[in-house]
Amino acid sequence: MSAAALPRPQGWLDHPEQPVALRADGSSLSRRQFTADLNANIARLRRLPGDAAILCTDSLYWFAAGLLALAACRKHAIVAGNELPTNLTRLTDMAALVVSDRKYPVAAVQHRLDPGDGDTALDWPDIDMAAPISFFTSGSTGAPKRIDKQLGHLIAEAETISKLFAAQIPGFRSVCGTVPHHHAYGLAFRLIWPLLAGLPFLDEAPEFPEQALSRLDAGTVFVTSPAHLNRLDSLSPLPAVKHPACILSAGAPLGAAAASQARALLGCAVTEIYGSTETGALASRRHGEPWRPLPGVSVTSDPSGLAEADAAHIPGGGALLADGIRLSDDADGGFDLLGRTDRIVKIEAKRVSLDEVEARLRALDEVADAVVIARGEPARLAACVVPSPAGANFLANQGAFRFNRRLRAGLALHLEAAGLPRHWRFVEQLPRGALGKASQHDIETLFDE
Q1: Residues spanned by CATH 3.40.50.12780 within the chain?
Q2: Exposed/middle/buried for residue 142 (C-beta within 10 Å: 0-12, 13-18, 19+)
Q3: Structure confidence at residue 141 as a pLDDT band (50, 70, 90)
Q4: Are the C-beta atoms of 255 and 267 separated by less than 8 Å?
Q5: Which CATH class is domain 1-148?
Q6: Distance from C-alpha of 25 to C-alpha of 208, rounded to nearest angstrom
Q7: Which parts of 154-243 are beta strand (E)?
Q8: Residue 418 has what DSSP assignment?
């Protein structure tokens, strides 16, 4: 990635009073104010020592200001995955400076992001596109994994997203969502892309689905995940005037029932996004259709059947993913995902797909959701199951032993003995993260208990 400067977003000078961010109280923050805040915090940050800083904010607006200010100061932005003191303390090994919109008692040096003079000129600062940014993703083990990118990768991804929605952007009026902005998906779709596309974004992430849906309107882009789309059961259908223009979901597979319910309640079909923290967004689809690569993205199959992606926003230009892939026969590069190859385990000398066992469990009438892991030596399968209403009734009347035998019998119609779980836990809700992914570490803890 070259050391070019980030250009001023299009239309910034023509409409300086247009909002950048919308607040829950109905107020907004303008492009003029954002430019002033950006310049003021750049000036303050330049006086602070160190070439790296931990970036952690509650506000999307101040995260954007902090990220671009650090890039302008040529400081390495280390994105905190959450605001827990233990997490921030761990990150202080990488940087002694914390940049935030509030105070955290974890670092020797802190910079509080504060407003500048909103009456100042719209002087766009020199922001280094090659400025380094680090994210952390838990993956399947729960152990933090560091992902290094540059600001230019985030900008290139935003440009790709704009091309995907080129025909729809004139009808988009704002962006809101339930996905945290410190996740790569949330950062790209809730913050960086709207900022560059001139779409106001909601400054906070609502905690409950009801709060998020209250902010929807015609022209809204709703950025969410299966973790939240699976929690719409108790909600009433939105009136037509509140139907969003677009619903996006990423982070984990979206089930057919959740996709259908979201369309019925929200009046808009869900567009799923495929990608990873390492690669950014790669493809999109409507549920039941093949995946289609985003504009400028190439997704192919390597000789072993793994997905291989090339795009300007991928560090190094390309990446090999852990997902098995089957290319479609059509001419537009469509493909189907066959599941993660790193979720193939050996049980009794037989290869077992954890994804397949989970899918078979979810297909049973007694199961609402399930996660399967391999544990122990020799490895045995362990299933954590959320019973459906029918399953919960059977469990209450017949007990856990007979319930797991019933589930094993259902699985045995499709799977060999090696694919039948030996250990079971029945819970009301799976321990999933903000994007709907279940951490093996959290699931293992349930069995350890």
Answers
A1: 1-148
A2: middle
A3: very low
A4: no
A5: alpha beta
A6: 17
A7: 174-177, 201-202, 220-224
A8: G
